[in-house]
Q: What sequence folds into this?
């Protein structure tokens, strides 16, 4: 648009200049009354638009009576092209494509010829044609991540900052019916949501560029491939709120008569009661927040808000952040509530494992300073901490009871006592990584997560581990590699993307600052319901 505006402005200026030129031409004509040389109207405001082995020249003609040809010369006059034209009066814009050009810059001379054979003065313009040299410098817009994949319906593909001249990324992948799908990510978008994809299929992506802002051709970087995540059917159900507690809130207002107004009224399961931020006396502005402790770890696939009944000045924009430790929160995004809806459900783009959830109202309808909310609800699967009493250790790399059993034994990582730990051998030999143990849980568990505690107060242990699962104790499937912060005592929960159903779990420490590994406690979270 900007360029169009520029050109229009240029034409306008051109016309102004031209009008004064016309007067000059009149004087000129007087001089040439006896007719030595008569010039045809000169091409004006010539522009070049680059392309692939070609370019487009655009120019204007004013009052070009009798003009019927345009000639373009380049390569110092060694190449030329003549075109028949019939310019409209009084002003016309004309275009000519010059093709068959090798990749370089050119100087073009453009002139017209009229029906009497009079030529115009030449207009010069520079332009470039592009080919392999430009093409070979192109790289794809950086692909950052694919998030999600355990949900029934969506993943988010994120993209880095595009290089100059980028016009979009084209994605192609198959949907679950095996049909090819093509999507475009525009330069101003940094993420795209995909809702139907073939499990572990290939996605091909290719970035497009123009060599100059108004180029007539687009060039593509070489296509690259990335594997799409597994598609997993995940059916969450409404999570029971009986054990939920509000552990933090910005403020509440019981002036209408508690429980109304209290933060707890937003999770009491009763749509008729509501949390309300203060309005009686103090009138704090947005944001307003509540933090909920589910009292359990939940694999969450959706959440739902119910507005205060019968009110139109409800929440308009809000954020939801989730956490496993009430310290580190991850944002699920900023959402909009449709004013007309009594309640509204939002599906998450990934399946976060959540113990603590912070809801923050950012803005209300009708520009109200306050917020109110009847209910916050969640859908997902509650991950129970699997009972370890029947567990049996069926294998391990090494263990080291030299500090006095049970310390050092694998079973010390499963005894519920943070003071005891499994330790790999250090007495009479200190084998290096990897170190592992295998437990038989004695039942089928759909595993959602594991939780590990380091040997308390000791930062010399492993910093990375893998989880493998098996149904027969022989054939194991790699469920991923996880970072482990060996600087903290607190439990660290790692979510398993693919939610395997398994009886055997293998913990494998793969990296650390020393040869040995140790672990105070190891828990599995999941569900044993079919
Ligand atoms: Ca309520
Ligand atoms: Ca222990």
A:
């Amino acid at each position: 648009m900007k360029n169009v505006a520029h050109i229009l402005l240029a034409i306008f200026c051109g016309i102004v200049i031209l009008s004064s030129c016309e007067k000059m031409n009149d004087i000129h004509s007087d001089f040439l009354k006896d007719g030595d040389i008569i010039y045809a109207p000169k091409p004006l405001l010539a522009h070049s638009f680059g392309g692939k082995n070609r370019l487009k020249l655009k120019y204007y003609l004013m009052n070009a009576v009798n003009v019927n040809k345009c000639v373009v010369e380049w390569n110092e006059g060694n190449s030329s092209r003549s075109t028949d034209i019939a310019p409209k009066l009084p002003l016309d814009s004309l275009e000519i494509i010059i093709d068959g050009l090798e990749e370089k810059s050119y100087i073009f001379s453009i002139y017209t010829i009229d029906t009497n054979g009079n030529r115009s003065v030449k207009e010069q313009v520079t332009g470039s044609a592009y080919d392999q040299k430009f093409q070979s410098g192109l790289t794809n817009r950086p692909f950052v991540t694919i998030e999600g994949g355990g949900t029934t319906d969506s993943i988010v593909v994120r993209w880095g900052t595009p290089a100059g001249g980028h016009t979009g990324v084209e994605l192609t992948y198959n949907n679950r019916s095996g049909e090819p799908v093509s999507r475009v990510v525009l330069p101003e978008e940094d993420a795209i949501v995909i809702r139907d994809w073939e499990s572990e299929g290939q996605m091909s992506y290719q970035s497009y560029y123009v060599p100059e802002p108004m180029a007539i051709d687009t060039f593509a970087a070489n296509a690259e491939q990335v594997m799409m995540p597994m598609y997993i059917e995940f059916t969450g159900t409404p999570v029971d709120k009986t054990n939920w507690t509000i552990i933090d809130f910005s403020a509440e207002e019981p002036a209408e008569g508690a429980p109304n107004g209290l933060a707890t009224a937003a999770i009491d399961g009763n749509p008729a009661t509501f949390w309300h931020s203060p309005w009686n006396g103090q009138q704090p502005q947005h944001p307003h927040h509540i933090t909920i402790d589910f009292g359990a770890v939940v694999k969450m696939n959706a959440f739902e808000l119910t507005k205060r009944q019968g009110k139109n000045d409800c929440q308009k924009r809000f954020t939801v952040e989730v956490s496993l430790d009430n310290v580190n929160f991850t944002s699920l995004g900023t959402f909009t509530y449709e004013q007309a809806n009594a309640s509204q459900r939002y599906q998450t783009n990934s399946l976060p494992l959540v113990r603590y959830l912070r809801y923050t109202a950012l803005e209300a309808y009708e520009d109200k300073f306050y917020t109110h909310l009847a209910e916050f609800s969640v859908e997902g699967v509650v991950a129970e901490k699997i009972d370890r009493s029947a567990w049996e250790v069926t294998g391990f790399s090494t263990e080291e009871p030299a500090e006095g059993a049970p310390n050092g034994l694998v079973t010390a990582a499963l005894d519920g006592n943070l003071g005891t730990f499994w330790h790999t051998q250090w007495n009479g030999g200190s084998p290096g990584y990897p170190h592992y143990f295998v437990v038989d849980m004695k039942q089928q568990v759909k595993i959602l997560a594991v939780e590990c505690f380091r040997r308390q107060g000791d930062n010399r242990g492993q910093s990375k581990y893998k989880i493998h699962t098996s149904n027969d104790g022989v054939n194991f499937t790699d469920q991923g590699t996880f970072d482990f912060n060996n600087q903290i005592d607190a439990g660290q929960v790692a979510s398993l993307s693919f939610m395997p159903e398994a009886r055997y779990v293998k913990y494998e420490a793969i990296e650390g600052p020393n040869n040995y590994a140790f672990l105070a406690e190891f828990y599995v979270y999941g569900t044993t319901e079919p």
User: Anything to note?
Assistant: Residues 1-5, 7-33 have pLDDT under 50 and may be disordered. The domain at 44-130 is CATH 2.60.40.10 (Immunoglobulin-like). The longest strand covers residues 288-306. Residues 298 and 354 are 5 Å apart (CA to CA).
